[in-house]
Amino acid sequence: MTDRPHIRSRELWRSREAKCLSIIDRALHLLRQEPAFPVSEVELNRCFYFCLLSASRELYPDDEIAPLLECNSQPDPDDEARARREQKRPDFQWIYLDRYEADPQRSSRQFVVESKRLGTAPRADWILNLNYINNGIHRFREPEWAYGKLAPSGAMIGYLQSMQPADVLREVNTECQEKLFPDLVLVGDRKLGATSRFEHVFDRPFQISPFKLYHFWIDLR
Predict the structure, then answer these.
(1) What integer best gives the mean pLDDT of the chain?
(2) Residue-wise over 49-66: b if at least 16 C-beta within 10 A, else e?
(3) Is the pLDDT of residue 49 over 50?
(4) I want to staple 113 with a disulfide (CB 3.0 to 4.6 A). Which of 92, 153, 174, 218 is the partner?
(5) What distance in Å separates the CA atoms of residue 101 and residue 32, rounded to the nearest whole number?
(6) DSSP bridge partners of 112
(7) Residue 118 and residue 127: Cα distance in Å, rounded?
(8) What pLDDT, in 10s, does the model give residues 107-153?
(9) 3-state SS of the chain?
(10) How far apart are CA 186 and CA 179, in angstroms?
């Protein structure tokens, strides 16, 4: 009996996670229908945000939880004072209350999504495929950032702008190995001109570990 709230809490998270993943997938499809795409990550995220809203209304019209753009990471009651991670801003996140959590101060749950460009490096000191790990995946594991700290999963968006997808994946996985992350594993088929999905699981120095990270790569070439 004592484990029942924990079971319900996990079920609630799985339900919210499934909704977020479905919305992301549909929103990327809507983004791909745009007549033109911005180059910059900031402008791509802005376009994608409106696609997320449209996908949310289309798939879950009765769900009142909206995605947030560039909202600060939320406080963790285990921190004695304002942590540096609270100054960080993931690209997107959904926030809801876990009604099965006994402690109200620990009831906030966030599904966090970070986005990065992929493809040919625009300059020698800004290599997109390495940034995807070092300024993206790494933020879910590094305590200073601790994206999704109180959650068992999150997601990454890759805006594929150039290069062959297989070459991008090779560079990304090589850097993952250098930084002691597991390789991204393709889920289903690679889809040219559409969205391909990957995932991997890694340990973190936080209470909730291991952590599963879903990857959605949208082909914008």
Answers:
(1) 94
(2) bebbbebbeeeeeeeeee
(3) yes
(4) 92
(5) 39
(6) 93
(7) 9
(8) 999 999 999 999 999 888 889 999 999 999 999 999 999 999 999 99
(9) CCCHHHHHHHHHHHHHHHHHHHHHHHHHHHHHCCCCCCCCHHHHHHHHHHHHHHHHHHHCCCCCCCCEECCCCCCCCCCCCCCHHHHCCCCEEEEEECCCCCCHHHCEEEEEEEEEEECCCCECCECHHHHHHHCCHHHHCCCCCCCCCCCCEEEEEEEECCCCHHHHHHHHHHHHHHCCCCCCEEECCCCCCCEEEEEEEECCCCCCCCEEEEEEEEECC
(10) 19
Q: Tokens 């088929």 belong to which residue?
A: 189
What span, in angstroms and rounded, lies between the C-alpha atoms of 112 and 151? 9
